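RESIDUES AND SHAPES:
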Amino acid sequence: MITFIIGLVILFGGAALYGKFCEKVFGPDDRKTPAYTKQDGVDYVPMREWKNSLINLLNIAGTGPILGPIQGILFGPIAFITIPIGNIIGGAMHDYFSGMICLRDGGSQMPETIRKYSNKGVYGVYQVFCSLLLLLVGAVFIYTPGDIAATQVFGFDGSATSVSTWVIYGAIFVYYLIATVFPIDKIIGRIYPIFGAILLFSALGVFVGLFVKGYPLVELWDNWSWTLPGDGGVLSYSDYFNANHFIPIFFITVACGILSGFHSTQTAIISRTMKSEKQGRMTFYNMMVLEGFIAMVWAAGAMGVYNLGLQTADASLATATIGVVCKNILGPVGGIIALLGVIVLPITSGDTALRSLRLAISESFHIDQTSKAKRMGLAAVIFALVAVILVFAKMNANGFNILWRYFAWSNQTLSLFAFLAISVWMFENGKAKFAWMPLIPGAWYAFVTITYIANAKIGFNIPWTGAYIIGVCAAAVYVGVIIWYANKRRALKRKM
């Protein structure tokens, strides 16, 4: 338990220091925000800081900070240290600057931000990549909450042939459609406080339960193994660590608790509803830190039930592990409420993922969104594509595994575009000496994502040695090209 507590101290202590530093580097001021200068009653709507913060938290926190850490903790207690460090210098910094740059640039969505701070080639790749990711997010975040609700709340079998499965999917679909099309303050702004209360009960309930129940956790400095009750044998985290290539697999698996490229598409939405730039640290940076806390809690909960022998330590059983943790810690009734909190997370990410896709497409192709008919028409096309992906994932035996792997990899890869934009923005705004802030995590994730896809069976299936070499070269090229391009743009800007 000591390693877990140290990790929490790193998370919150580091966030207080580095979050303040990020704010100082950006320099928020008292200028009018897009919520006022472009107020339209649909997407540009002034909302209170607490509501923006809560909406952003629910937008960014899907099943990633739950399912990811449940699988990632199999690598051992090192997860309790890598999650908070990565969250502070990578994920929270990424979210803060992405959101603040969009806010400063008039509430632009990320595709337009990438267009402004890169070139047509990069923008084109980003636009296609981002659209595909948001479609995958929409499908994944119908599939996972739907199956958890079907199997662990209502007691159905959750099979593809069960009518109940598709009824639950349909109900989530209808909610997504409403949240995608209607004004943000009328739907999301009103229902999210309820969702937020359920989420807080879930996360805090499990957190307190870890101490009340005295869950056994392996320490970083001990032998990374645990003797299971009865004749269960020994659970060796070190064996899993050594056999499964911690780098890059851990960082792809844990995903959202450390860094998520998807988040930049969500902070862009909130940039249109903020009353002041000075609310950015709480709304963007601190909410990502809270997602890191959620990831830490679920990593600890999973390790606890693994060590108690209540659940087999198997990454493929991550969804079932959620139910075991909730019901063991909070009892039958509290467990169901906690499960509802877990279901809320992906639903509140999926709705705004599709909303941000609608906004991005409409902004890129100049489709007027003040008309309800045009919003519905664009949403219909988006939802048809999501439905096709969902049916494929559910009807094929290995469909969801394929969907999840591409989702996890593309989610991390998308962050590289945001780090590029942040770096160029810094060079153009007299902050080049701070460009190390996005370039360090950007270089790391260039290495991680390229190494992973080079080796993965869903990628190029190259042996690990070759994949690592390719990853190192890709990271070096990534940093070198950004610095060259940013300096070139800065020089041209000075001549104008």
The CA atoms of residues 144 and 359 lie 25 Å apart.
